[in-house]
Amino acid sequence: MTAKNGNKKSTGALLKISRRKFMGTAAGIAAAGGITGFPNIVQAADPIRSIGLGVSIINEIQGKAAKDLGFPVRGQALGYGALFGKTLNQNDQYEVSECYFDMFDVMVPSKVFQPIDTTRIRDWDKVSNLTKTGKLTPGSQIGQGDAPFHKLWVDENGAPTKGPSRYISAVPGWHNADSLGYNPKETKRSIDSWAELFSSDFKGRVALLNVPQIGAMDAAMGVEALGLIKFGDKGDMTRKEIDVLVDFLTKKKKEGHFRAFWETFGQSVNLMVSGEVVLQSMWSPAVTAVNAEGVPCIYASPKEGMRGWHGALAISAKASGKQLDQAYEYVNWWLDGWAGAFVARQGYYMSTTANTKKSLPADEWDFWYEGKPAAKELPDPFGTPLVAKGAVRDGGSYEQRFKNIAVWNSIMSENDYLVKRWTEFLTA
Amino acid sequence: MSKVSELYHTGLIGGQPAPDDLAIQAKISHTEEGFATVWLITPAAIWLILFLVVPLVSIVIFSFWENSPQGLSPAFSLEFYGEYFYTKGFFDPDADRFLLPSVFIRTLGSTVYFTLVTMLLCLIVGYPIAYFLAMQVQAFKWQLALFLLCMVPFWTSYLIRAVAWLPMLGRRGLINQALLGLGIVDEPVSFLFYSEFGYTMALVQIYVVLGIGPMFFSLAKIDKDILEAATDMGATPFQIFREIIGPMSLPGVAIGMIFIFVMIMGEFATAVVVYGGKTSTAGTVILNYYGIANYPFAAVNALMLMLAMVIGIVVILRVVDIRKEL
Q1: What are φ and ψ of residue A407, in 5° steps?
Q2: Is ipTM beyond 0.90?
Q3: Helices assigned H by DSSP within A307-380
Q4: Residue contact B170–A210, C-beta within 8 A
Q5: What is the DSSP string of B80-102?
Q6: Which of A163, A189, A287, B20 is deepest in the core (most CB within 10 A)?
Q7: How far apart, in whole angstroms, are the C-alpha atoms of residue A299 and residue A393?
Q8: Measuring CA to CA, how many Å separate B66 from each of A22, A33, A141, B53?
Q9: Is residue A354 a contact partner of residue A129, using CB atoms and an 8 Å limit?
Q10: Could you state, in order of their start, the residue ranges of all structural domains in chain A?
Q11: Exposed/middle/buried for A350, CB within 10 Å: 0-12, 13-18, 19+?
């Protein structure tokens, strides 16, 4: 999850305005608690505030939205924990939260969002079935854990409903599926199962994601693939299942199986580039980044399926009047195509695929969504060349990826117990 | 130093009589013209109240709150303190966790362990450097130049210093290349990095300077005439160190150790970068619970870490009475 939140633009704009104006603006920025500062921040229009991760809060995105919509959008990029906490405990501090469906077991019952009226979402009919029915194509499997479609539908009071409704908890946005990354030169064979994560062939050269909620699921995929235990739901494990999993991981750790545990995108790239690790749980854009460094790295498509995650645009229960209208406009803008094309160049998919297709040049669409070889050199969202001609995106087409989601990112009912046992595993 | 002799000052110009009490009283009661004390301490006091006292009090308050899936709610609950100390099966002789402290206490324990080991190594490495600077280097300009040289690592960011170990100790690092090249090993050794060894070494490298500074200053303060006198009286170098240099440099050692102690107790980044996240420190536990928005439990962990730090500092100050020594 890259975050290129350079503030070059805002600094330049600030330098040009007079000192008095600067003081006023600076006070405004400070008051909003924001770090951005688009050139049009001095406009009279009321701004809206949007919080999210570096995946969706990028100066270019909110800047373009502000330009298209005619009112400022103040984005604030946070870490996952801070986003979770602010979304839950300070819903007067944002109009839109660019959050994730795996947070909704907490957010929906606590009523921090207001139900979104789908009749106000212009392209609602273009949002794919992945989040509406859980199946991208009729033959797809839904996947365990917090599949977005379980969290989507609510009634006019925001209470969850079983099936389709006029109201939704949040508008589905960008998403992706994660699996394993490996260096084929070092593994000397292709990796097609999560079980390989624990293969003794790679002892001391394996890394695991050190975010308990997600890392535990990756590990569970491996343990289940080994046939050691069959989980009822890997996205909602029982205490006993957590114990079995953590005991197994602890044993492996003591044997020296793991080289490291990574927490950030950059760390996972470094581990692979430096040759410390040959196989690890990995996010798809990180694989692209390793390849860009000239180190071979393949994004595996395990036969057991991948771990999916799905972003969403939620509107704070505290938003009202003009700001509520603007929040709707901003959410609608996200579905319009431009943002979908922008995130596609980072390897993420958008819920309104048809609109993204319209906004992406055919070459780029074929590469990112269809899994075809790049017809020419392709750029990243900032215009820097990223994909060499002839390269193929690992993991196949969008459809291939998302019809086989084994488990969705989730926060388990036993989350506190999981975090405690995970701490024990790391201290062991 | 506590005994005041009849002669207040002895130096090249001979003995000087001690100033009479009246003169001292006059000096004490005399107020210099300029800002009143209250104005001098106001900025720091405001700063500390806003950004230290208020947050600290909030942490204490938060630690008693309740945390449900629906968010925080004010309460007076000891639930999270119980969670911190008690493990199921602790009193049960049949359980596999019989008398096994909770994972949080064990994590704090391993944090203390790494801290103490690093402090000891910093003392072993740092004291001779400080001694050399203060005692062996005669010219002040060279003392200053060499001391600044010790600071060079601080010219770059902390994270870069930590990350820079990879090209040195990694599988494809300099040391492994050399070992392979010399034919000492057949394949890269991995105990150098992402290991307890690499972690401790990085901590020493990053924090030793914090100890060198205070030790250097207290060593440099020692009057060379005293050492010369001791030599004249026939004291051996060992006796001089044991009777004079050692005791007189103790305050510097204590202050240096306090700096290092406080910094490493709060460490979490080096464990991630150099140890590959293969251990938990008290800091990572706080971060993890902050990450799942369980602020009360993060607060309990933070308070326990602070308590351990305060105890550590008190112990150090018990061993060395800084106020007396300075």
Answers
A1: -155, 145
A2: no
A3: 321-335, 338-344, 353-359, 362-368
A4: no
A5: HHHHHH--TTTT-TTSTTTTPPP
A6: A287
A7: 9
A8: 43, 27, 39, 22
A9: no
A10: 8-169+308-335, 177-305+404-427
A11: buried
8 Å CB contact of A427 and B103: yes
Beta strands in A185-321 (DSSP E): 206-209, 258-262, 279-282, 298-299, 306-315
Amino acid at A346: Q
Place of tokens 């619970």: B289
Helix/strand/coil for B219: helix
Distance CA A406, CA A400 (A): 13
How many other β-carbons are positioned within 10 Å of the β-carbon of residue A304? 17
Chain A residue numbers with beta carbons less than 8 Å from the beta carbon of B104 are: 423
The tens digit of pLDDT for each residue in A264-308 reads: 888 899 999 999 999 999 987 788 788 888 899 998 989 999 999
Please determine, looking at this structure, whether the domain spanning A8-169+308-335 carries the CATH number 3.40.190.10: yes
Closest Cα of chain B to A388: distance in Å? 27
- CATH homologous superfamily for A177-305+404-427? Periplasmic binding protein-like II (3.40.190.10)
**Which residues does A187 contact at the CB level (< 8 Å), separation at least 6?**
A196, A201, A202, A278, A279
A354 CB contacts (<8 Å, ≥6 apart)?
A: A126
Contact yes or no for B277 and A427 at CB 8 A: no
Tally A–B CB contacts below 8 A: 98
Q: Are A180 and A281 in contact (CB under 8 A)?
A: yes
CA distance A96 to chain B (A): 19
Dihedral of alpha carbons A350, A353, A357, A358, sign: negative
Nearest by CB: B110 against A79, A213, A427: A427
Q: Which of residues 245-274 of A touch B (CB under 8 A)?
A: 253, 258-263, 267, 270, 274
Q: What is the pLDDT of residues A205-222, one digit of tens each?
A: 999 998 888 999 999 999
Mean per-residue pLDDT, B180-199: 90
* Cβ atoms A85, B289 nearer than 8 A: no
Q: What whole-number distance in Å separates Cα of residue A151 and Cα of residue A100?
A: 10
For B102-325, CATH number out of 3.40.50.720, 1.10.3430.10, 2.60.220.30, 1.10.3720.10 equals 1.10.3720.10
Q: Which of A51, A137, A147 is nearest to A94 (CA)?
A: A51
- In B, which residues are within 8 Å of A419 by CB distance? 288-289, 292
Q: How far apart are CA B2 and CA B25, in angstroms?
A: 20
d(C-alpha A150, C-alpha A135), whole Å: 12
Stretch A150-171: mean pLDDT: 93
Q: Do domains A8-169+308-335 and A177-305+404-427 have the same CATH topology?
A: yes
| Dihedral (CA of B239, B243, B249, B251) sign | positive
Q: Burial-class residue A405 by CB neighbours within 10 Å (0-12, 13-18, 19+).
A: buried
CA dist A230 to A212, A222, A252, B75, B296, Å?
20, 11, 19, 40, 34
Within an 8 Å CB–CB cutoff, is residue A106 touching chain B? yes
Q: Round the average pLDDT of chain B to a whole number and report it.
A: 85
A14-35: pLDDT as tens digits: 333 344 444 443 444 344 434 4
Q: What is the pLDDT of residues A29-58, one digit of tens each?
A: 344 434 444 444 444 568 999 999 988 999
How distant is the Cα of B233 from the closest Cα of chain A, in angstroms? 56
Q: Is A90 exposed, middle or buried (0-12, 13-18, 19+ CB in 10 A)?
A: middle
List residues of chain B with CB under 8 Å from any CB of chain A: 69-72, 103-104, 106-107, 110, 163, 166, 170-172, 190, 193-194, 272-273, 276-280, 284-285, 287-295, 297
Q: How far apart are CA B101 and CA A422, in angstroms?
A: 16
